[in-house]
Amino acid sequence: MTGYGIAAYGTYLPAHRVQLADIGTTLGANAGKGSRVVASFDEDSTTMGVAAAAVAMASGTVDSLYFATTTPAYADKTNATAIHAALSLPEAVFAVDMVGSARGGVAALRAAAAGGGLAVLADVRVGRPGSADERGGGDGAAAFLFGPDPIAEVIAESSVTAEFLDRWREPHAVSGTQWEERFGVERYQPLIDRAVDAVLTEAGIGEPDHVVVVSPNVTAAKRAAHGLTGKLSTRNAPIGHVGAADIGLALAAVLDIAEPGETVLLVSAADGCDALILRATERITRGRQPIPVSTQLSSGRPVSYATYLGWRGILDREPPRRPEPDRVAAPPSARAVRWKYALTGSRCTTCRLVHLPPARICKRCGAIDAMADVSMAHRPATVTTFTVDRLAFSLAPPVVEAVVDFDEDGRYTLEVADGVADRLSVGARVETTFRRLHSAGGVHNYFWKARLI
């Protein structure tokens, strides 16, 4: 990587956790201890990518966007364009997908670093019930904005590539397959050794302060991390294997704690091995993301294993006995793209009234075409009133609709995310979050919901 360093970063971990004990009890097997981070029914790699990117883009501009995932919401369509729209980026900003393998995360980082772009890494990992992938995976996203005034600079890099069959998934399969794990360990270890030796030599560093090793082959990652010790910390991925987002969440967790001048050896073994050395700059202490990965990981609310299986389509439960929503049509979505994806309303330049959705004629003073754009994306608001609808179609009933008043004017009715019917109250504080309202006919209806702060 050359030219730019990491100027800002952000991560997103979904709110729900499946207890491994619940998996074990359901399947009659020992599933271990702890919990697994899982995306909600209305989240996918695109929506999580938007959440992470919004944190990284809080105070910056970008010329290009690279989206890496092994679980794209669409094939034959660029998913990065939805992230581009939700961030309200200019049309001139290039946006492209890097999908299909965990190594796509490294590719996105390298591409963004070369030109001062934004790398967005997100995945929803699904394993067969009772599998190690299910227990040891996780869902999440990370985003990195590269620029000329970095909080961490890349000082060396090394890559080796090899073809062998360790982990794979057929294009239409929900879960993947892994060859006998020992075979992958034997193939990865010499690749890791070569990449690490090369990058340490290039950087002129004997022992880095922090070491992070990630790999779809969990045993290979653990063994390599055991042999590569840092002065201060050595770790693997913080929430288990996260596909293309593995390297991003692991790097973000170190940036959350690294001090100025400290070095980080970042190793990703996937279809080869990529190794990077980064050095934190003086800006690191004031450039960290607002909520560290460790805090996001320790929070969350439980969801039953049966509910989780239903969300992933693995458990085919009886659907609600009411009409399913219709497929969203392309023409109206295109006409309202700034409202639908970026939640952009309009403010009357005469009387300052905010209109949601945007309007040409002011409802208060009657001014015509005297409007300025105003974005409500990720804005805080207060619940004025709400209703709990137990009849509407949903994969996670009941549906909660709330009328919210935004802090800087504007009122709108939004669905409330993350199943908080038992915790919501008038006066509650919420913020907007990009989600799926529903999917029908192979089309995902993306819009914004409210979630408790």
Automatic annotation (TrEMBL):
Coiled coil: none
Any one Gene Ontology molecular-function term assigned to this protein's record: acyltransferase activity
Source superkingdom: Bacteria
Pfam families: OB_ChsH2_C (PF01796)
Positions of the ChsH2 C-terminal OB-fold domain: 380-435
Protein name: Hydroxymethylglutaryl-CoA synthase
